[in-house]
Amino acid sequence: MSGTPSPAVQQRSYLWQDGTLRSWLLTRDHKRIGLLYLGSITAFFVLGSIGAALVRLQLLEPTGAILSDATYNRMFTMHGVVMVWLFLVPSIPVTLGNFLVPLMLGARDLAFPRLNLLSWYLFVASGLLVVYGLFRGGLETGWTFYTPLSSEYTQGRVLPVVLGVFLNGFSSIATGVNFIVSIHQLRAPGMTWYRLPLMLWALYATSVIFVLATPVLAITLLLLAFEHLFRVGVFDPTLGGDPLLFQQLFWFYSHPAVYIMILPGMGVVSEIVSTFSHKPVFGYRFVAWSSVSIAAIGFIVWGHHMFVAGTSLYSAIVFSMFSFFVSVPSAIKVFNWLGTMHGGSIRLDAPMLYAMGFIGLFTVGGLTGLFLASLASDVHLTQTYFVVAHFHYIMVGGMVSAYFGGLHYWWPKITGRMYPEIWGRVAAALIFFGFNLTFFPQFILGYEGMPRRYATYPAQFQVLNVLSSAGAGILAVAYLLPLIYFTWSLFRGAQAPDNPWGATGLEWQTASPPPVENFAETPVVTTDAYDYAARDGRADAARVDEGAPHA
Amino acid sequence: MPDSPVLDHHSPYETPLHRDESAIAGMWLFLASEALLFGGLFLVCLIYSHTRSAGWAEGVRHTNLVIGGVNTMILITSGAVYTMAVEAGKRGDNRRVVRAGLGAAALGVAFLVLKGVEWALEFREHLFPGPDFALHGPDAGAAELFYSFYFLATFLHGMHMVVGIGLILWICRKARHGIFGPAWNTPVDIVGLYWSFVDLVWMLLFPLLYLLGRA
Amino acid sequence: MARIATCWTMLVLLLAAELVAARAGLGAVVCVLAVLMVLVIVLGFMQILRAPPLAIIFALGGLFWLAILLALGSLDSFTRTTVPVHDTAPYAPAVR
């Protein structure tokens, strides 16, 4: 394995073989589709961030600094809808997942390559529809589209957004079907289930949610659209419907969707923690099965979003209990990551900084979730900034950190270039700091009773709000940094070796960037995942063969 | 879905059999997803038919049992006929695939036409929920809910029928070029799964819309 | 061929039985018969037992999650305390 790939390798690389625009837009190569997705979700991430920035600017002053109340409502809705469906839900699965699933399996491609491309087109179409709906008219419902607000009040402005999210769902289902069938059918010889990288277990669990929860969202939104278009009652109480039924159906998707937004991050962190501790993951099977059980239990906790909505006490008790259950597999993961790091030879490269940030922030987010799962404290905390802080710790502190960590970790494999390590560490530290400054004050705000989704607030909350907005400013800079230095590295970054981190995993055994067909010949797996002894032995042997020591 | 009997150089599979098995498994997974799509509708029905049972039953009594029953027969037959196409595909008998496929599609169209007639009758009788809804009395609200469910469910099922008929015609076109053989007939099989699923959903919708609460 | 004919006959008979049961007001029987019809289709037309084992896993998974949706989704409605009001349409709109 040499430090700079030869021109021959570069020519076979999936990036440069046939570089026409047409070949990109009609590609069936999972790696290229991953990059198409990367470009599109980055655009949506920027859009959603602008919404967040405007919201934080508005809240600098108790009476509202810059926006009218209506515009404020539209902005937090835009932020929520774009971030959830156009960034967080697809994020890791469709970019890193698309790129890595076949590589990690030792396969040439996903099971249904054309379905994969179709999912990208569906995603782009849905994104454009959603953005059209959000800006042509605007929407004030928040990302949850609760009826009767969405059906009565919005006068049809909700329709394009709902249609977009509906389409988006089919893009998710396509990705989910593809991943599940690929993981079942396309494992390389010797790749047993317990030799799969934990990333794949996490993506498998995520895909189960994609396939089985998303259709329920689709039908819910369809019912909403029908109700509005034809004035037939389903959810609207003035037409005889039950508005809580909308919430039941919506959260049957949207709570599992929270796990769509965290499980892939957990997979990424498992990979990174193991690599940068140079140690097998502690309790591999527990971590693997905890992904599956998070996905399974995640389906039966949705009622905790509705404790104060007037649901029955029986249902509240049942859902509260299940919500506590889901913390068990989550805690198993956290402890096992710590167990992996314990006694390892830890290197603090940028991906590891992100992963460690993830562990800390996810733990805070998870523990504060317990306050919301308890019936008594939820009555006080629900619909306050405590909830906002809680889920941002999971989704931004957790998922976005993991996403950036994963991007840094696999960037050399994806592009064949190294990113500037110093800047990577600076950005990671800045994100951690900025994130906590933004969202920790919100826990206090919520505890003190500041409700979410209001454009104004009592003056006593101003200090904490200003702190939070200042943090958001830092966060914005910190998110811009990777955008800049990743772009820079595409042109000026050092050539990446095949395995810059000394990691196990089949994706590191092929060239950086990989050739179109992924592997020159189908790999045969003979060791467990994270078997560093075997890998180091192979690396030593290769060095001896080449006769030249190489760092 | 594969579109030719041979593997192209980019295919991730080792053998055609491996590919075809994956395709069939993938279709089943998609159908599981579809089941949850209709599951949302069934939940609506389950809840309202119990919490608002009197008016719901009144709605059921106003549906057209004759057309519903005939349509159920048509779908059962259509499913059986398409299954013959699947069998013919396994033998590589392309001409029979075309004939059985067209038969199944024609029955599907007949179903939709009858459904359209039924809808037209219901519109004329003012059974579509709205200000001039035909039923009155204390339970009229729940009867309206029933008709909301009725129209939504039959519409969604009808859309699936349209897609299914389209898929069957696509299979017939392929079969006319004689491309299926004993070694490769997966598309026929996969469309069969979809068509049977549409069939199956109707077997559940029929009692919900026409029977339960009628007596 | 014989298999298809048998399945078709079974489905027709089940449909007839359904109509009779519905006329007799036996709702539970109608439900059982409907489930039987679904089973005939899944086993006879879709031939799930001859599909790859994976298909059975996927089908059972879908069924399991469907059961969760229906059971937990209806839990609240069936156990909710409703406060009786005189008007049967408690939220009747002011203007329609």
TrEMBL record, chain A:
Coiled coil: none annotated. GO terms for molecular function: cytochrome-c oxidase activity; heme binding. Its main location: membrane. InterPro entries: Cyt_c_oxase-like_su1_dom, Cyt_c_oxase-like_su1_sf, Cyt_C_Oxase_1, Cyt_c_Oxase_su1_BS. It comes from the Bacteria. SUPFAM superfamilies: Cytochrome c oxidase subunit I-like. The keyword DNA repair does not apply. Residues 10-526 form the Cytochrome oxidase subunit I profile domain. Keywords: Electron transport, Heme, Iron, Membrane, Metal-binding, Respiratory chain, Transmembrane, Transmembrane helix, Transport. Gene3D superfamilies: Cytochrome c oxidase-like, subunit I domain. It is a multi-pass membrane protein. The chain crosses the membrane at residues 35-55, 82-105, 117-138, 158-181, 201-230, 250-274, 286-307, 313-332, 353-373, 385-410, 422-444, 464-486. It is found in: Membrane. GO terms for biological process: aerobic respiration; electron transport coupled proton transport; respiratory electron transport chain. One of its GO terms (cellular component) is membrane. Belongs to the heme-copper respiratory oxidase family. This is Cytochrome c oxidase subunit I.
Automatic annotation (TrEMBL), chain B:
One of its GO terms (biological process) is aerobic electron transport chain. GO terms for cellular component: plasma membrane. Its main location: membrane. The chain crosses the membrane at residues 28-50, 65-85, 97-114, 149-172, 193-212. Residues 26-214 form the Heme-copper oxidase subunit III family profile domain. GO terms for molecular function: cytochrome-c oxidase activity. SUPFAM superfamilies: Cytochrome c oxidase subunit III-like (SSF81452). It is a multi-pass membrane protein. Pfam families: COX3. Signal peptide: none annotated. Keywords: Membrane, Transmembrane, Transmembrane helix. It is found in: Cell membrane; Membrane. Belongs to the cytochrome c oxidase subunit 3 family. This is Cytochrome C oxidase subunit III.
TrEMBL record, chain C:
Keywords: Membrane, Transmembrane, Transmembrane helix. It comes from the Bacteria. The chain crosses the membrane at residues 26-46, 53-75. This is Uncharacterized protein. It comes from Gluconacetobacter tumulisoli.
